[in-house]
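Data availability (excerpt). The following record was deposited with the supplementary files.
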Amino acid sequence: MTIGTKTKIWYNRFMNILYCGDAGISRGVLVSILSLLMRAPKDNIYNIYIMTIKYEGVKPFSKKTAEFLDELVKKYNKKSFVKLIDATEVFTRNLPKKNMGSYFTPCSMLRLYMDKVPEIAVLDRILYMDYDVVCRGDISEFYNMDLDGIEVAGVLDIYGRRWYHYHGLLVQDYMNSGVMLFNLPECIKTKMFEKAVKLCATRWMMLADQAALNKAINRRKLMNRKYNEQEERPRKDTVLHHFSNNFKFWPYFRVQKVKPFEIDKIHRVLKIYEYDDILENFEKLKENL
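Predicted structure:
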């Protein structure tokens, strides 16, 4: 839209967001949602979906917690909502058999079943985020990008990009699955989700859900790392900060794990204090989980 001599881009402020997991992700989801509410423009409207399952050894995400989160987002914008989806039936109908005993819970693969969930399959696009992703700014430009002919938009994995290649040995195209924008009609048309589920059912893979998605995606759009910063400290332009596991080599090799709700570690280990206002609200609200 042109106003005078200046051109202004109007973004769609309705955004579909997806989290997947069991009861264990509730603290992370609360911090992640608080960051969306406190760091992005106040007029953003979030349609937040949480997929969970009731399965052997899995404690599902709580309905009570989802209701609390729904009340929370409505305090910021009454048009926003949080909806809990029980995906047990679609999951058990097509079990990822070869990867059920992996390091991660079966819930890590729930996003692969989006096409079988009526409430989600009808959407035009949805932004999936891991429970340990914190928002630092407006995600509108990322969410509203042109996805014509594209199945998924995401960011290269900081480690896997060096080892996994799908379009030639010199081409870096292995995406981290912690932040992915799905063009649902295109994904359903190409049967991308079905391919990924079949891979998980028939072939053991390291990081099964991420590997399956990368193998099943035909057309991907690689974005700037600011939309999924996986290093332990964000950069100046970081929009989405992903608290993923990091490898440390000094003084000895180890995997460093710091999650956004672990306030002491964020201060002591990472020396990060910019999220303190978000975490202060988290401390006040976490008893509702």
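Summary of structural features: The CA atoms of residues 37 and 171 lie 37 Å apart.
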